[in-house]
Write a structure and sequence with these properties.
Largest sheet: 4 strands, mixed
Strand content: 5-15%
Order of helices and strands: HHEEEHHHHHEEEEHHHEHHE
Distance between the termini: 67 Å
Number of domains: 3
Shape: elongated
Strand order of the largest sheet: 3-2-1-4
Number of strands: 9
Radius of gyration: 33 Å
Number of helices: 12
């Protein structure tokens, strides 16, 4: 639920002791100061009018410590941040989880979270006893005003006046206690923006970061885990298969064959995709120049069909076919051009490796880290010239 927040809000509670929508009325005119003249309270967030009242109300219930701030950070920005173990923080880019700039984004979101804590002050309500005292004080003030209009008071009325004055003072004291907590919350917002309260994005130690990262941490192998997903700029392609009757097979054997289809789905942070191809998928698109290039440099239709299947298979993370191909021949026959075109289309999914990575360095092959780019890439090419 979105609602415009006017900083001119009442500090008096309503009948509900839980966090609430602030009523309009008398109160501080901005979040940069208070009625007692304290000006060191920070500024109201510039996006206050666009923030969710539900999140502010929920955060108002959190304690004023790092654990509470960690949960505040996750409520506001948890969907935009992901920590990958042994790799670091990733930021949601709208299409994929991006490692570059992840830590900078995290610190910015922590700073925004700290600023928004000031808005919680308006949602701090009186305790039941404070609310009863405030309501009794308001009623006593009205009764006292009526009593003071009398020209002369008898003994009983004098006793009643004393009781009413006590109730008024008790109500003012309860209201003052509420204001103290609201002021303390606004001061806590300022201190929460300090570096020590934010924590280290690199080591995930200290501050709100240390309390948030265990909840938003994923294993490296959780990234790009679905071998049948391929991420494009306008959505995520999902390859799906089904078994159908083979029209060329014998009916008696009931032979089946696999039919593949592709569907495009909206980008979803829950898929934990960290790669994106720099292309827009268009099922109706044609490529006459590319087809003419293939016809010229590979006139054998059967081999062209194999290349189509192989390069399409390289878009997936499947390795069941266990197929390795070598493109060889004299120069200027389209080998490098073909692979370069495909690799540009695949973008993050393609990787060029030195030829020594196949044969090993000094006679020994180096083991790839499970979260290295080489381990997670789908099409790997190696150039070798005799």
């Amino acid at each position: 639920m979105l609602i415009s927040l006017n900083p001119a809000i009442s500090l008096l509670p309503n009948s509900d002791p839980s966090p609430r929508t602030p009523p309009r009325g008398k109160g501080p005119q901005n979040f940069g100061g208070d009625e007692d003249g304290d000006s060191d309270l920070g500024a109201m967030p510039v996006d206050a009018d666009r923030l969710s009242i539900d999140i502010i109300a929920a955060n108002a219930l959190e304690p004023q410590n790092d654990t509470g701030n960690g949960r505040r950070l996750l409520r506001w920005f948890g969907d935009d941040l992901l920590h990958v173990r042994d790799v670091g923080w990733h930021a949601w880019a709208g299409t994929h989880w991006r490692r570059a700039g992840g830590e900078e984004m995290l610190v910015q979101r922590c700073q925004q979270t700290a600023e928004r804590i000031a808005l919680e002050a308006a949602f701090l309500a009186a305790t039941p006893s404070e609310r009863a005292a405030i309501e009794a004080g308001e009623q006593a003030a009205a009764d006292l005003a009526a009593l003071e209009k009398l020209a002369k008071l008898n003994d009983e009325q004098k006793k009643q006046k004393a009781r009413l004055q006590y109730a008024v003072e008790a109500g003012k004291f309860a209201e003052g206690e509420l204001k103290k907590r609201q002021l303390a919350r606004r001061k806590f917002a300022v201190s929460s923006g300090n570096a020590g309260k934010i924590g280290s994005p690199d080591t995930c130690r200290g501050g709100m970061i240390s309390q948030a990262f265990p909840i938003r941490t994923a294993a490296p192998e959780a990234l790009d885990a679905d071998p049948l997903q391929f991420n494009c700029e306008n959505g995520t392609l999902r390859f799906a298969s089904r078994e159908i009757d083979d029209p060329d097979g014998a009916e008696a054997t009931g032979y089946k064959k696999t039919e593949w289809r592709v569907v495009i789905e909206p980008h979803n942070p829950a898929d934990k995709i960290a790669k994106v191809a720099p292309v827009i998928y268009d099922a109706a698109a044609t490529c006459p120049k590319f087809m003419a290039f293939l016809d010229r440099f590979q006139p054998n239709q059967a081999i062209r069909g194999f290349l189509q299947n192989y390069l399409g298979y390289a878009m997936t993370g499947s390795t069941g076919e266990q197929c390795l191909i070598f493109l060889h021949g004299l120069g200027a026959n389209g080998k490098s051009t073909l692979i370069e075109i495909v690799c540009r289309i695949l973008g993050d999914y393609a990787l060029t490796l030195p030829f020594e990575s196949l044969t090993g360095e000094n006679g020994r092959r180096r083991r790839q880290s499970p979260h290295s780019r080489a381990a997670s890439s789908r099409l790997k090419r190696r150039n070798y010239t005799c």
